[in-house]
Amino acid sequence: MQTTPSGLEAVRTRIADACRAAGRDPAGGTLVAVSKQHPAEAVRALAGQGQRDFGENYVNEAVDKIRALADLELCWHFMGPLQSNKTRDVAAHFDWVHSVDRARVARRLSEQRPSGMDPLNVCIQINSDGEPDKSGVDPDGARELAELVQALPGLRLRGLMAIPRADAADRNRAAFRNLAMTLSHWRSTMPELDALSMGMSGDYDVAIEEGATLIRLGTALFGARG
Fold first, then answer.
1. Rounded to two decimals, what is the model's pTM?
2. HEC states along 176-194?
3. Which residues contact 167 (CB under 8 A, 6 or more apart)?
4. How many CB atoms lie within 10 A of CB 123?
5. Between vectors from CA 21 to CA 160 and to CA 212, what angle results, nearest 5°?
6. For residue range 101-127, what is the model confidence (pLDDT) as tens digits?
7. Angle, CA of 9, 98 and 95, to the nearest 5°
8. CA 180 to centroid of chain Cα atoms
9. Residue 195 near residue 123, CB atoms below 8 Å
10. Count of CB atoms situated within 10 Å of the CB of 57
11. How many Å from the N-terminal Cα to the C-terminal Cα in the chain?
């Protein structure tokens, strides 16, 4: 099911209302439409309603989609687990990577970023709950990785990302708050950091209350995947 103009508007309104309720400027919350496993035609339809930021998790699917939609001025976010052998395509086609969690991946992304493109915007993914089957750097090693990313010429460190446990939204509040506190602490020496990628269709109100700036929504916009 594709979103309707009223559906997109409802999501935008809900994000703006959540920002205001938290005492934040509504312009500080960017909606990233997660289009993985949805066809290029669905992305084009949403883009026709004014949506510009889209997120993908699978490299091959994403590159095909990006090429099919090259006539549109879209901002593409990669947010899935990233293997070293896929970094070249991500470096060449995306504007953001939310899921950097290893030094090797960071170095390859920097080395493979085409010279004519702006540095790739990067968030460090933190495994906030220590789940063994989930991507993300351990919180204790995140600062070291961030400092490495900050020094790489092909990358621009922007902030942090986390995907907490799939529990009730309010149970994720502590994970969101911890991520926001970590970013706030880092900003004392890295004042340019400005991004918190957190919140999905089931918990984005809580994420916004805790400071999310990049809100990743798929089901709320496109409906269930086939």
1. 0.93
2. HHHHHHHHHHHCCCCCCCC
3. none
4. 28
5. 10
6. 999 999 999 999 999 999 999 999 998
7. 75
8. 15
9. yes
10. 19
11. 9
- Kindly state the tokens that stand for 30: 């960017």
Tens of pLDDT along 50-106? 999 999 999 999 999 999 999 999 999 999 999 999 999 999 999 999 999 999 999
**Selection from 148, 49, 55 nearest residue 98 by Cα:** 55
Neighbouring residues of 9: CB distance < 8 A, sequence distance ≥ 6 = none
CATH of 5-129+139-222, one of 2.30.30.30, 2.30.42.10, 3.40.50.800, 3.20.20.10: 3.20.20.10
Residue 200: CB partners within 8 Å, gap ≥ 6? 34, 163, 207, 216, 217, 218
What are the boundaries of each domain within the chain? 5-129+139-222
**Burial zone of 14 (CB within 10 Å; 0-12 exposed, 13-18 middle, 19+ buried):** middle
Which two three-digit tokens encode residue 209? 């209350």
Q: How far apart are CA 218 and CA 54, in angstroms?
A: 9
Which one-letter DSSP state was computed for residue 30? E
Q: Which two tokens stand for residue 51?
A: 């949506």
- The CA-based angle 50-52-55, given to 5 degrees, is 135
